[in-house]
Amino acid sequence: MTLAATLTRPQKAAAILVAMGKPAASRLLKFFKQEELKSLIEGARLLRTIPQADLERIVAEFEVEFTEGAGLLDSADRMDTILNESLSPEEMSAIMGDKRFEPVPEGPQPIWPQLEKLDPARLGAFLSGEHAQTAAMVLSKLSPPAAARALLTLDKVMRSEIVKRMVTMANIPDAATRIVENRLRASVLAESSGRDTSAGQARVASLLNEMDKGQLEEVMQDLEAAGTPDLAGVRARLFAFDDLPLLTQKARVLLFDGLSTELVTLALRGASAGLAESVLSAIGARSRRMIESELAQGSDGIPLADIMGARKTIASATIRLSREGAFELPSTQSTAEAA
């Protein structure tokens, strides 16, 4: 027997209101009698997490629209928020009798600016263990660059599911936001409270990766001469598109298996024959023929900025995979020697 079949009608109605979200539910609550509101409240108190499949059955039964994913959060907390923001304290006291019904406290300040400073892989590791709806909510709160970096650390299946939910996501209630914020504080920021230089290393590496080989080596030599600490961590994050031939064949196959042919084609425009071959040799025969056919048409009219952007995207994907342990990057020193 499903959970939906065991719920009372007041519990189902409470679940529907929670699913609808605060704005719509607030308008409907004004039409309920006090006895009905009390029944709804007490029904909601008995509800815990409602699986999505059961929520869909309840919604189908009542034949109303609902916000996808609303049943994933604690129904009692959501119902409390809706009621507190819809009814006055006097009305709540009249409904609940002697029971005190206090508004949900505001809590600490939002943590999103702190999350944007984290290593994307650290945030991605947290999101990979969460429901796609929760991950979509978190990424929707971040700036687009920070959200994109974290999204790219996830596998393709979850990435697509998260983006799909972000497209259809409605306004997120404050109570739900605070629940997720508290979990992030406990699970992500608490682990980063110690000395962690990875963010600084990543910033320096990102800057250096914008330079050409000659400039990069000159700056690295200056940093070494100045006794700059944690240079090993910086070196581990240095990689350019031109370094692709230095990766093993296995690493290149793994890298390009997750990239679109359009991106690879754009990046290879104007590339040397040796560099192009190192990429094409790691791609399936069908995709290779398609890319070679496109490249044979020339690069006229294609902005250089677009080509360089595609190359940076591939270099970033390479660095991300290496940090996830998929393979190792060639060191800056070996890169310089090979050049």
Element-by-element helix/strand order = HHHHHHHHHHHHHHHHHHHHHH
What is the class of the largest domain in the CATH system?
Mainly Alpha
Could you give the distance between the termini?
A: 67 Å
Quaternary structure of the protein: single chain
β-strand percent reads: under 5%
Q: What is the name of the CATH architecture of the largest domain? A: Orthogonal Bundle
Structural class: mainly alpha
Helix content: 55-70%
Average per-residue pLDDT, rounded, comes to: 75
Describe the global form: elongated
Biggest sheet statistics: none
| Global Rg | 26 Å
Topology:
Layout: H1 3-6, H2 9-20, H3 22-29, H4 34-45, H5 52-62, H6 75-86, H7 89-96, H8 112-116, H9 120-128, H10 132-141, H11 144-151, H12 156-168, H13 174-189, H14 198-208, H15 213-225, H16 231-235, H17 249-257, H18 261-268, H19 273-280, H20 285-295, H21 304-323, H22 332-338
How would you describe the overall organization of this protein?
The chain is mainly alpha-helical and 339 residues long. The protein folds into three domains: 3-96, Annexin V, domain 1, CATH 1.10.220; 112-192, Flagellar motor switch protein FliG, alpha-alpha superhelical domain (Annexin V, domain 1); 239-338, Annexin V, domain 1, CATH 1.10.220. Helices cover 65% and strands 0% of the residues. It contains 22 helices and no strands. It has helices spanning 3-6, 9-20, 22-29, 34-45, 52-62, 75-86, 89-96, 112-116, 120-128, 132-141, 144-151, 156-168, 174-189, 198-208, 213-225, 231-235, 249-257, 261-268, 273-280, 285-295, 304-323, 332-338. Helix 18 (261-268) crosses helix 20 (285-295).
